[in-house]
Structure to design on (850 residues):
């Protein structure tokens, strides 16, 4: 089944947030802080205000009134304090984009009382503390068994530090909002969001409005990868600007501004200690991380939680430490926690295999647990071993000589590597309705399609539930006026929305009427206590140039066990897309912070390198046909994030196999190999 | 302000325009042709790619006034009618996009690229016309970024549209 909105997307008819044709719209452009810490001493917008075409300027100099100001990232222009470089300090509203941009850049004079800033995460940072919980609510620290004794008893050990840099989501569509106030004081926001219902509720609270007075429309969203999971400042700024200007206002962040104002993945400094007996069975696993948040908000990425999920061990300790720096607030980026955590754990497992003289696949299979190690809960299903075995067969793993650094083809050193993937299968309460119209079925749910294929998957799910053909089903999503839904995040969209759609369809068939609705709050709340995770195995072949250190990925294979796959053609694309982002993480992506000025240096697409077409080989994807009755009526696990998890480790392990060099600090750039 | 005449998708426009206006902003904000996307506004992502007099360009880097007298083709005009261009059909068939935001630029870039010929930076033999294999396609399409990571399918779609190869790739379940 092809993507149902495919024709709209290839003809330019799919409308994204900034593109709605709103009569009388004015243009806004944000002014950002030029310091990382301190206070605004004076803000003079007189030059902007006298520029022909400028309608108004908003800033803390004339503090706009807000409702709930508890979220300091959304409580814009409320005071002179600066918490990070690039924080919004003013917005200019004008008749045209050209005038707004020019006046924002040259017409707003800001003077600061600057204070020394602290933007550098380091393992000995004096401010490191243990947060109470890590995203989205896990305990920060867990311990079972005696880790030190387990390490002391081990025949082989690994004790290494792995680091991942700050990373930016960089969805292709910049975060944008058009704000339209109606004559009765109702607010419509056309916004690039991953969750219209949540966006409406949060934004209404910030603006001091009841939620029923706010509508959020997001029919097409140009990617998000977590960064559009919650409202960003531009939505609040656009609403305030429209109110002040007395006209609809459109506001997009620039690519450059996105780096400061839309979240990013924290850098991590991870120490992993593994011990194993002579058979390769783990005797201890200790995983600790230092990471950062802003001074405004605590966001603690759940980096070491993966070690509570993956391997059997009698002694397990996982811990998180956070430093609050003068930086923008980090946030969700595709598989927060799992992605950096599995780079460290799966690199360490490769090192342990080498230390133990074992095949890395056999080492993992040796440590397959009966129940989730961190919790003791049974798995609803776990097919990591099947993924490893199937992948080994497809990749030709049996022919692999484990000796590193010995395969030279021309001037290219060739190597292969493997790593496991995992991601939890979540579900959250959602409502949906289905109605009959001229023999067709209209399905309504405030879901959103950020590129995942939500429309297509829900069409398939509804058609199956109704016993109808997909052509008879029309799915309406992307609007907070539709039945309330959880966000497109945490790889739980299809599971959550799909459950509600199935239940609504069942109710319609049962009542035989024209319309039925469903709310899954009770069903989700009453779910049995299982550890629910998708698993996968990733295989990489790399070629490393012996003279330049350039790394090229020549093969990538991912085999996944993620429940029932609902829309196979699109699912394959999702897995490949995640693996492609993982390739970027492995080889090129990093956001460098300037210690002197406190800002992000690599803050555009010429300096922050995303994988381009020439970087990406043919990627092969397969999946295990997994039956799991403990998930949801579709039997599906989420697939949006697991593709990125493990890719970087598989590539780093392949680089070691090719060269004999173990790169523990991403990305694997040539300079790190030419030592 | 400046006066210019520009033909967009075979429609002639006579415009008074702020000289700071890029071709992309002219298309999106004045002519309401929002198919062309703004991803970076710096010529780094390719989302804004359109054809100007048949050549692919980053429309965010081109001042609209520099296009006086030019013929511009955007994604809305690629098919030249109500049907789909073969490249558009191939993109749907191969699932060569996810969020769709880079797609209009990818499509215009493909159509321009297929008309270009000549060697690329990776062509080994400069004395003959290069064969448009997967490596040449990847090289020639690397000015158009896709964060969803649809490159594998984009290459397959181009191979299909160019008649080079590529049945629809399938990932199959095992067991």
């Amino acid at each position: 089944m092809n993507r149902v909105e495919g024709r709209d997307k290839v003809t330019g008819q799919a409308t994204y947030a900034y593109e709605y044709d709103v009569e009388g719209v004015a243009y806004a452009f944000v002014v950002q802080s030029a310091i990382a810490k301190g206070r605004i001493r004076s803000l003079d917008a007189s030059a902007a205000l006298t520029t022909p075409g400028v309608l108004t300027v908003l800033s803390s100099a004339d503090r706009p009134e807000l409702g709930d100001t508890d979220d300091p990232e959304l409580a814009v222009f409320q005071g002179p304090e600066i918490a990070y470089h690039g924080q919004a300090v003013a917005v200019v509203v004008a008749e045209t984009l050209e005038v707004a941009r020019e006046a924002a850049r040259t017409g707003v004079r800001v003077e600061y009382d600057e204070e020394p800033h602290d933007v550098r995460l380091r393992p000995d940072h004096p401010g490191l503390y243990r947060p109470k919980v890590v995203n989205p609510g896990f305990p920060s620290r867990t311990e079972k068994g005696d880790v030190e004794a387990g390490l002391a008893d081990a025949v082989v050990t690994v004790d290494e530090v792995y680091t991942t840099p700050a990373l930016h989501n960089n969805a292709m569509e910049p975060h944008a909002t058009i704000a339209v106030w109606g004559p009765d004081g109702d607010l419509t926001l056309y916004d690039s969001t991953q969750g219209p219902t949540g966006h409406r509720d949060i934004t209404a609270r910030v603006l001091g409005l009841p939620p029923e007075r706010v509508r959020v429309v997001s029919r097409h969203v140009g990617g998000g990868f977590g960064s559009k999971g919650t409202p960003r400042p531009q939505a609040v700024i656009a609403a305030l600007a429209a109110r002040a200007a007395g006209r609809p206002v459109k506001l997009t962040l620039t690519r450059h501004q996105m780096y400061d104002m839309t979240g990013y993945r924290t850098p991590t400094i991870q120490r992993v200690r593994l011990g194993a007996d002579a058979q390769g069975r783990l005797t201890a696993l200790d995983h600790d991380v230092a990471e950062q948040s802003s001074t405004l908000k605590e966001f603690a990425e759940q980096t070491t939680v993966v070690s509570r999920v993956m391997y059997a061990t009698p002694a397990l300790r996982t811990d998180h430490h956070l430093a609050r720096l003068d930086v923008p607030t980090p946030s969700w980026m595709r598989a927060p926690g799992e992605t950096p955590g599995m780079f460290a754990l799966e690199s360490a497992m490769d090192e342990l295999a080498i230390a133990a003289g074992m095949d890395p696949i056999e080492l993992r299979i040796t440590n397959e647990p009966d129940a989730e190690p961190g919790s003791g809960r049974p798995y609803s299903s776990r097919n990591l071993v099947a993924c490893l075995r199937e992948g080994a067969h497809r990749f030709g793993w049996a022919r692999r000589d484990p000796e590193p650094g010995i395969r030279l083809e021309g001037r290219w050193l060739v190597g292969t590597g493997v790593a496991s993937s995992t991601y939890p299968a979540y579900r959250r309460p959602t409502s949906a309705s289905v109605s009959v119209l001229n023999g067709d079925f209209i399905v309504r749910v405030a879901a959103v399609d950020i590129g995942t294929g939500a429309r297509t998957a829900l069409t398939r799910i509804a058609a199956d539930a109704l016993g109808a053909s997909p052509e008879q089903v029309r799915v309406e999503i992307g609007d907070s006026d539709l039945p309330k839904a959880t966000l497109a995040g945490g790889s739980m969209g299809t599971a959550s929305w799909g459950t509600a759609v199935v239940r609504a369809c069942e109710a319609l068939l049962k009542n035989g009427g024209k319309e039925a609705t469903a709310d899954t709050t009770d069903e989700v709340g009453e779910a049995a206590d299982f550890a629910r995770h998708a698993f996968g195995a990733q295989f990489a072949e790399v070629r490393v140039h012996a003279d330049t250190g350039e790394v090229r990925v020549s093969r990538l294979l991912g085999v996944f066990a993620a429940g029932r796959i609902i829309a196979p053609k699109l699912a394959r694309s999702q897995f490949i897309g995640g693996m492609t982002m993982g390739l970027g993480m492995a080889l090129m992506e990093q956001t460098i912070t300037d210690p002197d000025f406190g800002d992000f240096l690599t803050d555009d697409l010429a300096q922050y390198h995303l994988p381009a077409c020439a970087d990406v080989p043919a990627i092969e994807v397969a999946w295990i046909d997994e039956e799991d009755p403990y998930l949801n009526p579709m039997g599906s696990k989420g697939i949006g994030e697991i593709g990125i998890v493990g890719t970087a480790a598989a590539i780093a392990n392949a680089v070691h196999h090719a060269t004999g060099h173990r790169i523990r600090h991403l990305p694997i750039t040539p300079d790190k190999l030419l030592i | 302000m400046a006066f210019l005449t520009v033909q967009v998708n075979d429609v002639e426009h006579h415009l008074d325009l702020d000289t700071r206006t890029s071709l992309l902003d002219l298309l999106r904000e004045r002519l309401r042709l929002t198919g062309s996307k703004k991803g970076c506004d710096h010529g780094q992502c390719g989302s804004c790619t359109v054809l100007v007099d048949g050549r692919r360009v980053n429309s965010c880097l081109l001042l609209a006034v520099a296009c006086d007298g030019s013929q511009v083709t955007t994604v809305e005009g690629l098919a030249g009618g109500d049907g789909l261009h073969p490249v558009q059909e191939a993109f749907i068939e191969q699932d060569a996009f996810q969020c769709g935001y880079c797609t209009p630029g990818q499509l215009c870039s493909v159509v321009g690229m297929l008309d270009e010929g000549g060697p690329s930076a990776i062509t080994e033999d400069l004395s003959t016309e290069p064969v448009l294999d997967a490596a040449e396609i990847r090289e020639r399409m690397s000015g158009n970024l896709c964060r969803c990571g649809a490159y594998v399918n984009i290459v397959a779609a181009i191979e299909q549209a160019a008649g080079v190869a590529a049945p629809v790739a399938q990932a199959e379940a095992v067991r």
User: Anything to note?
Assistant: The radius of gyration of chain A is 25 Å. The first helix of chain A runs from residue 6 to 10. Residues 83 and 195 of chain A are 27 Å apart (CA to CA).
